[in-house]
Amino acid sequence: MTRAKIAVVVLALAALLLPIALPWIKTPLIMATAFGIAALGISILIISGQISFGHALYVCAGGYIAAFAVREWAFLDSAVLLCIGALTGAVLGVIIGSFVVRYRGIFFGMLNLALSMVLFAVLGKFFTYTGGTDGLRLERTPFFGVAMARDQFETVLLVTCVVLALLLGWLVQRYLRSVAGQALAAVKTNETRLEYVGISAYQAMWIGYIISATLSGLSGAMFAIAQGLVTPEMGYWVRSGEIVFVTILGGVGHPVGAFIGAGIFEFVKLFAAAYLTGAWQMVLGIVLIAMVFLAPRGICAMLETNKSEGRDRS
Q1: Where are the domains of the chain?
Q2: Given a cut of 50, is residue 307 above it in pLDDT?
Q3: pTM score of the predicted model
């Protein structure tokens, strides 16, 4: 078993067993898993050589559409809300991705950022429909058809998030190893040659972008259900930066990197905010700087490097 697979098992067991001894840790673990799923989407784009500084747009849209759905149909199941969030991300990814993926480099990143800030501004201005800067509250809905108390609800949500994380990580890995995934990676290395062999770089990027947006939309629905609240801050550029931070921290060599980065980010932020209330952003910055020097390709790359070194010695 490779180090990456061992990391997957350890993370999954830790997420499922730690709340037994530390019940308060459920919410941070849910938030970390949601961040990890969004980072998984960003990692797909990074493999193609592009970075989106505006993917909080899909996180925010997934959360708000879930909130609107609950307000319209209070009987909706939380599992359905997760599907609605993912579907919202997919639909927006199809529409926005159809023209965004024509651009590369800084133009790609900044266009995504501009679109996310448009959504942020709209949500803040239309108070009657969106609640303005105060946002919208979500009532706790049944999960898999069963109405639950808060503690039970968080337990089921955590287990669902972990299962989804494992499934999505496996599916993304399969996608990246497929012809479509290899074509996406080729966009970074030699896009012109990719076109010469008859594969559309536009189509490869578009498919990757849609998958990325779908994962972010699902992440947004998770945030909304866990917090019971959605606000325009979910679509602010800072949130997009946090997702990129998590992705870089964990690395893109293996899907587990997104969740390692998300776990470190969430718990560093949690404890730094508790003990260094006015300086937790500085702590996160120091962590990122340290990672740039110690592991420029992310923590996941360290696992892969160790595995390669072990093969070389043998």
Answers
A1: 21-237
A2: no
A3: 0.90
